[in-house]
Design goal:
Elements: H1 2-38, H2 47-68, H3 77-81, H4 84-115, H5 129-132, H6 134-160
Helix pairs in contact: 1-2, 1-6, 2-6, 4-6
């Protein structure tokens, strides 16, 4: 199980590295735009578009990392009333429902990517499907972290039932 946890941690570190690069690029692009517009009086046409598309990717990638750490809104009124084993079962059900919706998000995200494969961005003329690919990519990473959560819950259930890991 330690190897599996290390794999999940490596995936998270790669995502965080991508987020750092994307944020750094956004800052450089936006600063360049402000400098070009107000100092050189020659605004750049592509910086706003590319920054916006980087932000879209950052949202879907960061959502997965936030989900892994339990940073999203969660009302624990019902789980807090249950026994530890009941709470774990309920959390597995919650994570299974999330996996169901992530599967839908992935499938329809791929459809969106396919439908936008003939559209090009206004300023840089790259395929818009590259931007929309953030939807299924985010779904995949959240799916992976959902599996991790379910494995954690199952591991806790086995341990509490007296079985060894």
């Amino acid at each position: 199980m330690d190897v599996v946890r290390q794999v999940f941690s490596i995936i998270e570190k790669v995502i965080i590295a991508l987020l750092v690069v994307a944020l750094t690029l956004m800052v450089v692009f936006i600063f360049s735009q402000v400098f070009a517009r107000f100092v050189l009086n020659k605004p750049l046409s592509w910086t706003e578009e590319l920054s916006r598309h980087l932000m879209i990717w950052m949202v879907f990638l960061a959502t997965a990392v936030g989900y892994r750490h339990g940073a999203h809104l969660f009302i624990d009124l019902l789980p807090s009333k249950l026994s530890k084993k009941g709470k774990m079962v309920l959390l597995i059900i919650f994570d299974s429902i999330i996996i169901y919706f992530l599967t839908i998000m992935f499938v329809y995200g791929l459809e969106l990517v396919e439908k936008t494969s003939f559209q090009y961005s206004a300023a840089l003329q790259y395929k818009m499907s590259y931007v929309y690919m953030s939807l299924p990519a985010g779904a995949i990473f959240m799916f992976i972290f959902s599996i991790e959560k379910i494995l954690e819950h199952l591991g806790l259930l086995k341990e509490r039932g007296g079985q060894e890991k």
